[in-house]
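Sequence in, structure out.
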Amino acid sequence: MSVTQSNNIPLWAQDRDTVIAQSTDAQWRNQTPPDYSESKEGLVKESTHHHVEGSLEAIVQNLVRTFEMEASFKTNPQQWLSVVNEQFRMSSNGGSAYTASDVVKSGTYNLFIGDTEDYKASEETFESSGKLFHTAFPKGFLWEVLEVFSGPPNVTFKWRHWGTFNGPYKDYAPTGETVEIVGISLARVTEDLKVLSIEHYFDNSLFLKKLTTGKKQTPDK
């Protein structure tokens, strides 16, 4: 198929709100579908790239956002539309390759970041990691595709992950600055654009350093 023809784009490579609307039988982590209305407002205002609908960049961006949504909120990997469940693997910086079940259990933050000086994935749960970063970035930790270097079946792309540090990170006070990660990923996909594997490459400590530059807060504050 031609991934540049919008009328042939599969559901999972369309806007994630469309995917959510079609996932009528999904088992949601919080019993209700996620609400991305605030994130959408932030993306309109803060994204550095606004890709043309139906372009390769827009399709890749939608596919990865759908995967992130399903990994974070659909508790049954068999209901994920964006991946080939039995074959799917995800890794960061050449580390361990995780299955969809691993992602459901540990969470994308833990498997994405791993253990660093300022964040210990091995000491966090799915729930604690989500709470930690949602507290630090109360308006969301947004994501966009910057550039796509190669198309299917081996999709290589550059991306940006960012948020405004308006809430405390552990016992460090917020600074109000924009904190971002820029990285490159390689996604191997099927002919109908389901993800077989995805490898992320980025500095997993740089943005965390920015979360520990604020003054330490005392427990009563």
